Amino acid sequence: MSSNVIQLVQTVAGQTGAPQTRAAARLMSWLQDDPARLPEILGATAQLPPETLARCSPALILGITGAPGSGKSTLTDALVTQHRLRHPDQRVGVIAVDPSSPFTGGAVLGDRVRMMRHSTDPMVFVRSLATRGHLGGLTLGVRGILHIMSLLGCRLIIIETVGVGQSEVEIASVADLTAIVFAPGQGDSIQMLKAGLMEIGDLFVVNKADRQGAEELHTQLLNVLKLSMIDDSCGPHHGLGIPAEQIDQKPAPSPELGLMRTAGADRPSPQVFLVSCVEQTGLSELAAGLDDLAGRHGQDWRDRRKRAIAQEVRQAILEAIRQRVENTLGSNGTASGRIQSVLEGRQSVAQMAQELLKQSLET
Amino acid sequence: MTLSSKPARILIGKPGLDGHDRGAKYVSHILRDAGFEVIYTGIRRTPEQIVEAAIQEDVAAIGLSLLSGAHNVLFARVIELLKQKDAGDILVFGGGTIPPDDVEGLKKIGLSAVFTPGTPAKTIIDTLRQLLDQQAAAVK
Questions:
Q1: Which residues, numbered 113 to 142 in chain A, qualify as contacts with chain B under a Cβ-Cβ cut-off of 8 Å?
Q2: Which residue of A has its CA nearest to B27?
Q3: How far is CA B110 from CA A33, B47, B85, in A?
Q4: CB 3.0-4.6 Å disulfide test: which of A141, A157, B14, B38 passes with A31?
């Protein structure tokens, strides 16, 4: 493991100010450019003193997704402000993802522009990322960047996804909670029945409450969510956030009804919040709701994150093996010969695989 | 900044009180089309905000746009802050209504390039690519 990596990790965990920011930013670039380096960084992290590691655990990793124009960045900015007010001693991290052009590979990362007021707050770290061809709403290396933000001591990390719409479900596997943001005018109740995004939301935010149609949208959402599978740990009522099953006093539907949702103690029932970033309404209720959820589910989330990181390392190992065998298959120019051998029945797939594995180890 | 063939990251910002962002948006657009990742930070930023953002984003270069005439003071302030924070390796280039007589002075204080009104897109892109290649080679 390069001593440079160890040094950078130690700087991030141990120093403050510009050197820390620079080291963190550098590591984030490495991890986005080469996500396979995450285990290296994890190894360097494991060498840090326990008391340092103890404060490197976020209370909440919040995913914010929703259609373009729903106000995700503005909401993220407002939530950062709320958190800074409520917890002045806590650091906040933001990862903002925007799409890369499929034609040129370039991108305009324009989420940060809505959060610039926090630029000189040493307790806020914002990182913009381009998807670089990755589908699903995030980008490769997000988990690594999350890790660096944890090392910085960020207690709240918000990940804002690209916002292409219904297929952005990747965020649900990375974040502790996923918030789906809606704005008036984006569609009707049929839209909300569609699979994908609606299924991964742990909470829903109707933004732009100052605009016409916001109240209607709020009601429509509540109605649609009634049909979802709801687990029996209902959240308390916070301001305008009403748990779906309380709408008309009926008992909660049994778990057999409903959409595919991961059951279990770590999935709270969805709340729906109505906010206006422009008029500053509903935001403190939303922030309070998030704090409450983090307080109650934090330990489950930390355990889940550990499992996810282990899974990531597992994938990295398998990928390294795959690469090595693929190089053996392709590099010596007999790839077509080998394939032909299998096609003509002279060797089985299993025999060919065995031969390739053996050869990979010898090179 | 990395040495791989991944897209280079460039931050575009407008320091000071100037609100005319058409030029900054235009440059952001052409850079995007040329394969760069542009972090657009908008108008009315302080040099402190721009520099801090640039460091967090680990950009290879900062592009400053200014049409209000305050370029000598504000561009210099950005360069100074970068040095203070040990980030002097981030390239700085400027554009806007900058009199040709001021260009030499700006380059002396550390700007790598100045693109005055009318500079063709191709010149901007080629110059930046060249500067970034040189920077990468120097790090090696």
A1: 113, 116, 119-120, 125-128, 130, 132
A2: A108
A3: 29, 15, 15
A4: A141
Packing angle, helices B71-84 and B47-56, rounded to 10: 40
**Interchain proximity A108–B28, CB inside 8 Å:** yes
CB atoms within 10 A of CB A274: 25
What ipTM was predicted for this assembly?
0.91
SS3 A109: strand
Q: 3-state DSSP call for residue A30?
A: helix
**Residues B56, A101: C-beta atoms closer than 8 Å:** no
Beta strand A177-182 with A60-66: parallel, antiparallel or unpaired? parallel
Alpha helices in B21-112 (DSSP H): 22-33, 47-56, 71-84, 100-109
AA identity, residue A84? R
Taking chain A (363 residues) in runs of 10, the rounded mean pLDDT of each run is: 83 92 95 86 90 89 89 94 96 94 93 89 95 79 92 95 70 89 76 68 90 87 69 36 44 33 48 92 95 91 86 82 87 76 93 92 84
Strands (E), A224-304: 271-274
